Inverse folding.
DNA sequence: TTTT
DNA sequence: TTTT
């Protein structure tokens, strides 16, 4: 019976995405992700970066255009898709195969401080709510803060998990 | 030996994220994801939505502030994190447990047409490159298009995988 | 658009699987997995076990019988399936929900030295190497079967997890 | 920051696993998984098999011996591990890379009727139910061992995948 | 309780 | 090059 080959990878774009169109007018974007596993070195007793995986990705239609507009070299993204084998001929004429990712979902990671895109307007047309500046003020909104730590309860002050 | 419980889910926020701070000043954002499995109904011979999973999520520090600023009700996101069991007392005083997701990575999905946030500037400070217009024009850029479909090669016109 | 909620977890069975049959004769096995995340404690500078996640799992048809025959308390397994929300009434009559895993694939982990099951016979017919000890008879155990379908029936009256 | 590149794949072994030892005596098993995505053909209105992905896998130590004893050509398995890029020289002397899977967990799928291995003995010491047919002797097979470590040695000279 |  |  058939299998499901969907996987998820987190990594950074090694270059800007390349946007193209098929002859029938369908958009396709290609980009390469570098994904660097974190490994704990028992000898050195510290975290080190492992060897990076470079994974070629492709994405289609609207998503391709979104990717080309929203992502650039260095962006950290989460991608979900299917591993696919592609055949090609090298310069010597030998048949070769490579493994790539057919992306179904991709999103820019919101993990770090610089990653604060504007809110997206989901209404028809795709305009976005006006914003004067508003990035990264990064300070507690008084009301919320007070309201929350005033109570006894809710989340305790335990350290976060990572 | 210990296990790794990292999972990835795609879904939509059922409400705006709630941003709070611990007493020590650490930001935490909470939100609930609705993830609706797509199932193929053999009787009706068509795709249908399955029953949604509602998964409570929490995220910490900078990422919490990014989430609060960037995401809102309805947003489609990819989240990666660890399933966690939380204990609490219900109104009758019974000990209960719930399963939640401790989010490590989250990104707004770029899958659909309206999802086109501006490019994020990765330089220190987080300002973003000026842009005159540039959103969603969604048309082939002449040079690229021509250069690509002119050749015989590159990607062929096969239908996309999904 | 709908989402795909398939996840994979590695863990150990906290008890032997429970095998039952629906009134229509379909086998279902239930078991609970304990999955213990490994975390690196920066203070102590060592690996520690995090808090275990206990995840209720169900699996159907042939796979249910395989699970009941092959797995027992303590077994380390890899499971792949969909997170599902289940509604039930607690003793006070309140509507509650729990999150469980609808298992699509499960296999006993071959990671450690003791995990060496016999090779499986893949030939048509499915006979397998003779076994004295009475596993694998593949028939409803009278007590369980009766006890369960005697009730008003169906699968939906199972007790909530934990 | 580093990423986590753990993925899970379900597939079938295209051949028996190959078991070898490094010069330092560490076991390593290699096998190739075929993972065939199931796709729904809207034209034909039916499920079809997509194009298979062939993924080269390696696994180490005890797990390698377990794999060699328990799995054979055709076996359906669940594997979890990290995608890794490997460099090698092709016959023309060109530097090439391939993507493989460093397996951390693997288990034979219990999904189908024929997949019913005996229960595994989990007691200290790792003895297992008596077996007449000679699986699981757990010792290096002379020929393989010799043939492999006789060469100049180490694991790194293995031929590239496919 | 969300959703192209 | 596998496969309920």
């Amino acid at each position: 019976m058939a299998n499901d080959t969907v996987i998820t990878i987190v990594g950074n774009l090694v270059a800007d995405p390349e946007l193209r169109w098929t002859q029938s007018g369908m958009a396709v974007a290609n980009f390469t992700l570098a994904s660097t596993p974190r490994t704990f070195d028992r000898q050195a007793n510290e975290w080190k970066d492992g060897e990076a995986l470079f994974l070629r990705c492709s994405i289609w239609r609207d998503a391709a255009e979104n990717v080309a507009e929203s992502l650039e070299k260095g962006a950290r993204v989460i991608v979900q898709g299917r591993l696919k084998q592609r055949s090609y001929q090298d310069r010597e004429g030998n048949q070769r195969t490579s493994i790539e990712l057919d992306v179904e979902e991709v999103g820019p990671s919101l993990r770090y401080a610089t990653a604060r895109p504007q809110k997206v307007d989901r209404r028809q047309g795709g305009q976005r709510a006006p914003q004067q500046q508003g990035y990264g003020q990064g300070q507690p909104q008084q009301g919320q803060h007070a309201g929350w730590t005033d109570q006894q309860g809710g989340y305790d002050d335990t350290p976060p998990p990572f």
